[in-house]
Amino acid sequence: MIITKTPFRMSFFGGGTDMENFFKKYGGAVLSTTFDKYCYVTVRHLPRFFDYSTELAYSKMERVTDVDDIMHPAIKNTMKMLDMHEIRLTYEADLPARSGLGTSSSFAVGMLNAFYCLKGKYADKKKLADEAIYLERELCQEAGGWQDQIAASFGGMNRIEFKKDGTYDVRPIIIHPDRKKQLNDNLLMFFTGFTRFSSEMQKANATGYAEKIKQLQQMYSLVDDAEKVLEEKHRDLDDFGRFLDTTWRLKRQTGGSITTDSIDGLYEKGISAGALGGKLLGAGGGGFLVFYVQPEKKEAVMDAMKDLLYVPFSFEDGGTQVIHYTPESYEPREEEEN
Hints:
Blueprint: E1 2-13, H1 20-26, E2 28-45, E3 54-57, E4 61-64, H2 73-81, E5 87-93, H3 103-118, H4 125-139, H5 147-154, E6 157-162, E7 168-172, H6 177-186, E8 187-191, H7 198-204, H8 209-231, H9 238-251, H10 261-272, E9 277-280, E10 288-292, H11 298-304, E11 309-310, E12 315-316, E13 321-325
Parallel strand pairs: 3-5
Antiparallel strand pairs: 1-2, 1-13, 2-5, 2-6, 2-12, 3-4, 6-7, 8-10, 8-11, 9-10
């Protein structure tokens, strides 16, 4: 039996510039972090006592005898890609799916990690990220960028640079531990209660793409500005919050499905209560709101958001990990002769 633990990510700057059709022409970058909320994937070979050969438990339960009959596209495509058979897979998570935290990509990375481990093979973080991107964007044909898979696999607070040649670099943000703790303490996250499929939001926001290039380029440049705020100890950390407000207002211009009147109302309520900035995490349409709040304004912002679920969190650096490994012997079934 294998159990993997894979973090969710919080994207601060550059979201949208990780889309292949953008960065292959203009370049792109994202500043993001993973934090201590995880998805857990448990896999083992299914004992041969049942009249089905694969059992999957996520938000639904599937029991099938043929991999092609699996409904979950990511599981089906991964099992076919890695030639997995007779599998029992269980998914659990600390936070809900479809909430702007890259949950589907964290699952993809965690599942790949677990399957490779079950096969007795080592897959490094880049291999897991690359294959999760291929799985979601090519095999499953889901719209979206590349940042979620990379963040979930590598973990930590990073600048992820996307190059015109279709490659990427992951560079950890060099920040003093005290400054990093201060940043963590100044960020408040709330669940709006709305969930949506990221790929559907991406498709909805794809119309009028040419008109959004200018905003995306400005969002790209903000990655440099925010990185300097974090790494230069004499800079005012509060500028990070002000830049969050700038990038959110730019992001709102990149698609009609990014926000709603309800989200706008909640955001402005947080700003009015004293938050310097914030953003809706993910592709938009709902999920989690994060605010940057100075210590003396926290109580007022918490009161303004009292109708929402507050979710405390801490940054993490581990990325996807195997947290339980019990090897098991497995011999494929012999093909029945016709």
